[in-house]
Amino acid sequence: MKKLKKILAVSLTSITIGTACITPFSNICIEAADENYGAGGDLLDFTNTRGYYNMQYIVEMSETLFTKELTNDINRRTSGYFNYTKDSSSEIYEKVKEMCESGEIDKYLSTDEDGNTWISVSKFISVNAEQKNDSYYMGQLQNSFNTMLSNIFNSSDHYEASYPKDLTEINSNLYVSYAQIKVNLNKALVNYNQKEFEALDYAKIFYALEQLDAAYYVSGDANSDAEVNVRDAAFIAQKLASKKSDELDSTADFNCDSKNDVRDAAALASYLSKKSTVK
Fold it and tell me: Same structural domain for residues 114 and 196?
């Protein structure tokens, strides 16, 4: 098998983005491939300690390695197949299998005029007033987003991405928006020409994007229908009114205060109203 070197990230800086504080890549360092790459080596090295996995590496992983050996739990790291993702690869795979069985996966899929299948997700972005007014910080935020995308995927024609030009004010110290990412499955899965994809294929794409803190679940999509709209605000309000706040997960915490309450429904409604006005 091919012998591949791991991709590492160095010089990390902590910022708040998505639903939690994560560590973006302010300086990406990619090791050159082994000189025997493609020359019939006998080792495929997926070990990873501080960085991320390139899409090609993820595709090359067997189902057993991807679903059973790759972990995000430092205490279970026995094989060396490790990454700091919010969800483990096995959790993503199990969720995606449920999505395929229920048909929910179709909400994330589209087909272009050439017959290519695309999968779409959003990335929630939240900053405080100081960060928003810091042009350098905001520039680095977007640069790290673009750099990670270009290094996770093998080619720029494997994906399309749009970063928001403006953030919407929720309150005097919270500004939010979404980045949009679409991945061409036929190209990202190492130019597979297959027209029918399986749960494992989708799971690998979702896992690759989770390294960028972009997932099939996103802050604001409280009712898990792959859209953020007024139904989510109503869903949050209904659960709270029914005293079932325990049935709400982190996607309902739209105002980023680590609590699910009426202020989240109000913040989401305010965001949607302002976005509608801008249009």
Answer: yes
